[in-house]
Amino acid sequence: MKQKTNPLLSIHSYIVIAFIYLPVLMILIFSFNTSRISSKWEGFTFKWYGSLFSNRYVMDALMNSLTIAITSTIIATVLGTIAAIALRNALKKSKTVLGMLYLPIVVPDIIMGLSLLLLFSQFHFPLGKWTIIIAHVTFSISYVYVIVASRISGMGKQLEEAAQDLGASPWQTFRHITLPAIWPGVLAGAIMAFTLSIDDFMISFFVSGPNSTTLPIYIYGLVKRGISPEINALCTIMIFVSVGLILLAQWLQNKGNRGKKASTLPF
Amino acid sequence: MRKSKWLVSPVVLWLSIFLILPMAIVVVISFLQRDEFGNLIYQFTLDNYARFFDSLYMGVYWDTLVLSISTTVLCLLISYPLAYYIANAGATRQKIWLLLITVPFWINFLIRTYAWVLLLRSQGVVNSVLMNIGIIDEPLKMLYTKGAVLLGMVYTFIPFMVLPIYVALEQMDKKLLEAASDLGATRWNAFRLITLPQTKSGIMTGSVLVFVSTAGMYVVTDILGGAKSAMLSNIIQTQFLGARDWPFGSALSVIFAITSLVMIFLFNMALRSRHERAKEGRA
């Protein structure tokens, strides 16, 4: 039985949604505005997008972001998936190991960033792409683990047992039975790791070196210097890429997971 | 496959080296000294912690607490009705609303903060609109104020509060509400005595998330607040990336971590009902 909702509640909810989306919409609109400085609308243009693609710094930052995201996604997905599979059969899951796996989600970004900076400097590891990759793997592992583990927990063991009864080796069983069954989860975890990496600023800012400026670090520099229509264009592209990726990840996670409550929440 | 437990060791090893060890290093360095070039001197000292009690840093610490608590309270006041509305909507509408709340989660907060620069600066959208309507003649100074920082923080962290409260509302036992209304309770009393206590786990999770995230978020203050509104996280960031006073920065980080833990504990205490405390007292 649903009670009738109070009209004040729905008005409040629509106002909050407007409050959340209007500022972002503003960026989208201004990225097509002819005027460079004014906040008045002076005509529609694509030129800011054009100048973005001919800007060497933007392209360098984009390449860095992609290299870092792809590398860290591969490492984090392999490690996180292995952990999820390993812990599946452990009857009594060690609380220490589980706690450790959830820790990166709980530790504030600023602490993770500065503590890694201290680690790298103590061991004289030069800051650059690799230090960012290591940082991103460290926080992505948890998310991959959570997503893959939830996929595995909804899966029966009959097929694997049947395969082993029919003489398949553990590797064959994994390759032909387990992996295909958990694949959507692995993919969803990988997309999540990729998006987190492309998006991260707080941690990357601490461990980046002179030649490893990522897109968010580049945007931060621009924003600190002031407003420009190129930032609007760049932000618009980033909004569509991350939102698109997350919707894809959610779709993959829900596929075959019907009936179960799905969630894109990182907690 | 029974003996596959060792497979977890690569992850344990990775997290030990790149998560646990670095945090241990922070604690150790917070007790060390440094020379005038910023190099570490391996001698024990408590000076870094003593420096924190300087009135300058105590002021910043107080400001940080006030900002984080205000952000948490505002987020709660805005988010609870919204989460309640979503939880009571039909299945399809629930899905759409949830999607609407989660999407901004994945838009880089740098971008969302920058949007407020566009809106609040003196030649920005809000000032242009107000001046065109004729409400004001001179642009208002909104950017680089504490109000702008609070606005930016609330804006950034609303989803952190809506989602846990929604989950709690979804999971609560709805039969209790029916029972209450059958027994003649008003809707307000049913809400106060049943819904609110049943969803306090969501309120707590949301509050902790918002509080800790606000206290650790150095970018919003940096972009919307200007130099005068520096918070603890800005001071910490400067110690590492600007001033190169790592021992002091480490000490401040330890203080930040302890504050977060204390706040988590306090939220936990505050949200436990009198009833539960009474029960424990009797036991």
Automatic annotation (TrEMBL), chain A:
- Residue ranges constituting the ABC transmembrane type-1 domain according to the UniProt record: 62-249
**What is the recorded membrane topology of this protein?**
Multi-pass membrane protein
Q: Which terms in the GO cellular component ontology are assigned?
A: plasma membrane
Q: Which residues cross the membrane?
A: 12-32, 61-87, 99-121, 127-148, 177-198, 231-252
| Sorted UniProt keywords | Cell membrane, Membrane, Transmembrane, Transmembrane helix, Transport
The protein's location, in the record's own words, is: Cell membrane
UniProt-listed GO biological process terms: transmembrane transport
PROSITE patterns annotated for this entry? ABC_TM1 (PS50928)
A UniProt-annotated Pfam family? BPD_transp_1
Checking SUPFAM superfamilies in the record gives: MetI-like (SSF161098)
Record-stated family? Belongs to the binding-protein-dependent transport system permease family. CysTW subfamily.
PANTHER family tied to this protein: PUTRESCINE TRANSPORT SYSTEM PERMEASE PROTEIN POTI
Protein name from the UniProt record: Spermidine/putrescine ABC transporter permease
Automatic annotation (TrEMBL), chain B:
Spell out the Pfam families in the cross-references: BPD_transp_1
CDD domains associated with the record: TM_PBP2 (cd06261)
Q: Where are the transmembrane segments?
A: 12-32, 65-85, 97-119, 148-169, 202-226, 246-267
Q: Which UniProt keywords apply?
A: Cell membrane, Membrane, Transmembrane, Transmembrane helix, Transport
Q: Where in the cell is it found?
A: Cell membrane
> Per the similarity annotation, which family is this?
Belongs to the binding-protein-dependent transport system permease family. CysTW subfamily.
Q: What is this protein called?
A: ABC transporter permease
